[in-house]
Amino acid sequence: MSSGRSTTARDVSINPQTWRWSHPRVLVEDPDGEAGLAIASGLRFAGYAVAVCPGPRGHGQCPLTGPAGCAPAHDADLVVCNLGYEREVAREVLRELRTRYPSTPLLVVVPPEIDADLREVLDSCHQLPAGATPEQVVAAVQGISEHAAEGGAASA
Amino acid sequence: MRSPFHSEPEAFRFLLVLILALVPIVLAAALGPTWLALVVLAVVLGGVAARAAQLRMRKLRSPDLLVKMAPPHLGSAAERRVLVVANDTLSEEALLCEVERLGLAPRMHVLLLVPAVITAAARLTGAIDSLLDQARARMQAALDRVGHDNVAGKVTGEDPLEAIEDTFATFVPDEVIVATRWEQTAGGLEPRLAGLVRERFAVPVRHLVFEPGSAAHEPDEATEARYQREFGAAAARKFGLRALAGAGILAALVMSLVALARTTPTNTTTPAAANQAAALPTGAPSALTKVIELKVIASGKKGPDGKLHDDFTLTEFQVTVGQPLTLRIDNTDTVPHSITSPEAGVSIILSPGTHDYTLLVNQAGKFEWHCAFPCDPWSMAHVGYMRGFITATAA
Question: Does domain A25-155 match CATH 3.30.497.10?
Fold first, then answer.
């Protein structure tokens, strides 16, 4: 069997699939595939339909920051972001989420050190400290959902 | 209704491309002959098809940035659902042992999905049923061997990935196991299938490789990457061939249309010529290009008495003996009028509205005509109103 060669610097399709389920939907943005799947698994068992996206990663392309937009983000009821905010492109994703979908709750896993710029981006976002376990993320999502449902019922 | 566009710029870009594509077609259709419009249409369609093919090829060759998705877990939190996708590997004892082990776990549901890999050749030759029967036989043998009530089976003739997608809507697995050989065999599953499932669904996916008599193996990342590359290249090749065939068919169609458009006789005076031709006896001269237009107007022209009188806007007709002349007459009155000349053998009744008539005189001379329908008596008696002359000269 031949070994695989590196596949860097290739074009990437940025047209993700759309939601197929009508349950409460949570988009998980996490560059770590295993961590994303662990959160997704917890959320699935808590009754949520999930989408897991690695975010812009190394190639720097994300449909959210382009004209095409992002179908899963468009229709998500809540977004969990754990993109690591050392890179500007990750902050750009947060800004786009806030700008395009201001009414969608955003749960952000934040680094220990938050600079002024990031603090501004995180304004009105729900936050969890870095290193939060999947169970903690699921619990936070449930809390935000319940709060949103209560808010919706109160306003109705 | 939801917009198919994800953003306003995307919708605007689509609209812009649509307008840019339509403008040359409309211009060619309005200003040029039909064949030119067809050629422009072909060029625009070809351009769009080439761009679509380019994007498709790029997508097939490159790794997708697909968002993985999954529906909520079905059943109580203690239950687990595992989907096992296999076909030819179902005969392997190692796989059956794995399924048996899964079936022993409490509150576990296992579904054996057996896609009968149906090739294009099988579809053409109608060999689908035998492939489905083979898959059913494999599945039944596996179920008999495992012998647990919580292990079910399903055979499908769908594309394996589509079948798995459907299963996510019905069985809702918490984990997927894809069992293949190291390399695809005839009727076997594509080894790349596991990667495709992994890219699309937000559940753990295990790729187990079975060879006859051996234990299960899990391919390493390099091998999965090779599967991905080879699958992408093969899909791109297949798509390229299909696109080429489609382009050939399209080109043949457009060439046929252009040829048809160019061989259709064109005549700038088509309506008149058609009417004249219809009015003429067989074997009439073909020089039917001249059309005289005139009107009949009730109370349309002031006479020397200062009153308005009925009139023809043209009352002098020059014709060549034996050659028909087309008169396009708009009778604006509500009653019929006529051009009647018994000496010239002419009697044309003019119905209200615009119609084409044929004036044909078979002898030379200058003949007076008049309107034979009772109308304005003064006009009927005066040349230049409802009376005039037909001058026929020899050819």
Answer: no
* Distance, CA of B311 to CA of B93 (rounded, Å): 105
Give residue B32's pLDDT: 81
With CA atoms as reference, report the closest residue to B13 among B64, B51, B61, B56: B51
Q: Which of B323, B271, B255, B335 is nearest to B41 (CA)?
A: B255
Question: ipTM more than 0.95?
Answer: no
Taking only the tens place, the pLDDT of each residue in A83-124 is 887 778 888 888 889 888 888 999 999 988 888 888 888 888
Give the pLDDT score at B268.
39
Spell out the domain ranges in chain A: 25-155
With 0.80 as the threshold, say if the pTM is over it: no
State how far residue B213 is from chain A, nearest Cα, in angstroms. Answer: 19
Q: In this complex, do A7 and B66 lie within 8 Å of one another by their Cβ atoms?
A: no
Q: Does A4 touch chain B (CB under 8 A)?
A: yes
Asked if A52 lies within 8 A of B224 by C-beta distance, the reply is: no
Fold of B80-219: Rossmann fold (3.40.50)
Q: Which of residues 24-63 of A touch B (CB under 8 A)?
A: 27-28, 36-37, 40-41, 44-54, 61, 63
B271-393 falls under which CATH superfamily?
A: Cupredoxins -  blue copper proteins (2.60.40.420)
In chain A the first and final C-alpha atoms are separated, in Å, by: 63
Residue A15, pLDDT above cutoff 70: no
